[in-house]
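Structure ticket #2291
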Amino acid sequence: MRDISLRSLDVLAAVDLIAAEDTRVTARLLGHHSIKKKMISIHAHNEAAAVMRIERALMEGYSVALVTDAGTPAISDPGALMVKHIRNLGYEVIPIPGPNAAVCALSAAGITEPHFLFYGFLPASPPARRRELQQLKSLPYTLIFYEAPHRILECVTDLAEVVGGHRELIIARELTKLFETIRVCQLADAVQWLQADSNRQRGEFVLLLTRPPKSAEDELSDRAQHTLKLLLEALPLKQAVKLASDITGESKNMLYASALSLRDDLAEPENKD
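Resolution: structure written out below.
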């Protein structure tokens, strides 16, 4: 009730019609803020039909606001089809900033890596979910997933089995609500924590999986990599590593690990036609 912005309230009070994912939920929000408006329902199962109603309202000169339940329209919520259709007709679509569970969780996760990939909901089928995780697990980003309460245990179990238990998982549950919980743990311990209290499996979840550990090549600067490569072309490995460390100030251990990889690359014979 209190996360909504002043601008959002101004818009809801000014428009002629509100398209809501669940009119009952939005009615409570509007009532709390003493706003009375005509509403129509727009959700995953009727969005195509609802878009036609909204189009007719706009053609008749009415203004329309779109609201989804405790989330941002078109972000793992209905709305994208409507936005695309209405914009293609030439009407202006104006985004009103508001709460977003993925960004909210990320801001409280303490993850210092700047890059992340918002995935949304993984496939509900376990085989499809594991296949998707196989494709995602090596990406060098924090991965952000949404998950429903009835699938949270099997989803986290699959994460641990596919990715491995060594990476950190942040479980953010019921953000901005009464039973908000943020748990930081190793992926290997996440299922046990969820099972320890059935209440921990309730509500809507955001899962943040930290990126894979960086390789030596990732840690080294471009200058250090370039210096090391030039030295390896003229000197034995150990001597090249020592000189590269003296020149760049980088760790000998990281340079040595990188040198082993670079040496193998340099030793590979060129392909000939």
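Closing remark: Residues 13 and 34 are 9 Å apart (CA to CA).
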